[in-house]
Amino acid sequence: MIDDFAHEFWKDRARATTSSIRWTDEQMLAVDVALLDSLTEPGSTLLDLGCGTGDLFLALLDKFSHVTAVDMIPEFLERIPEDPRITTVVSELTSYRPDGPSDVATLFGVVTHLTPEQEAATYRLLRDAAPDGLVVVKNQCGRDDDVEVDAWSEAFGRRYVGRYPQVDRQAERLREVFGSVEVVRYPEELNRWENSLHAAFVCR
């Protein structure tokens, strides 16, 4: 099962000795950061679901008045520097309930490891977390069809399981929850596989 694999995979990543557990490279992170920077106003509050070690929001921390960083792996959150502007919360995505509204909510690289039912529930959670604000969902997507992977990965040195929703169908599922959804396709040089691409969904 994809959700069982995700728990095992990320717990293994948490035991890594490197400073970051991201599997995407610095070029991808730079595009992620630039996109979020272009969409947010100074002084905004941010909810980052599935934040990992916080690489995304830490690059823009001075822009936010407060960040709520949520992840199911406590070891990831322990790597985030202590800062009065950051609140860390250990929680599964589908059971997390925000204390109050945020101006911006993000879900980067997480849909890949959610079942379709979890994906739909998480979109509703994001809508409720930022009811009058901005939601940005970013992940790898199938180009023409959904792509499901369950194979040995040379990059990770282990079995890898992932689900890449077809990009247009993912946008339509988001439009069932949000009034406006803009699809931002990432530069082609960042796409390693012919049948998939990286895209962000800017939801309002």
State the secondary-structure class: alpha/beta
Largest sheet: 7 strands, mixed
Give, in order, the helices and strands: HHEHEHEEHEEEHEE
Q: Give, in spatial order, the strands making up the sheet with the most strands.
A: 3-2-1-4-5-9-8
Features:
alpha/beta; 9 strands; globular; seven-stranded mixed sheet; 204 residues; 29% strand; 6 helices; 29% helix; two-stranded antiparallel sheet
Question: Secondary-structure blueprint of this entry?
Answer:
Layout: H1 2-14, H2 26-39, E1 44-49, H3 55-58, E2 64-71, H4 74-78, E3 86-90, E4 104-108, H5 116-129, E5 134-142, E6 147-153, E7 158-164, H6 167-175, E8 181-185, E9 196-203
Summarize the structure.
The protein is of the alpha/beta class and 204 residues long.
Protein described:
This protein has 6 helices and 9 strands. By secondary structure, the protein is of the alpha/beta class. The strands form 2 sheets. A 7-stranded mixed beta sheet has the order 3-2-1-4-5-9-8. The longest helix has 14 residues, at 26-39. The protein is globular and about 40 Å long. The mean pLDDT is 90.
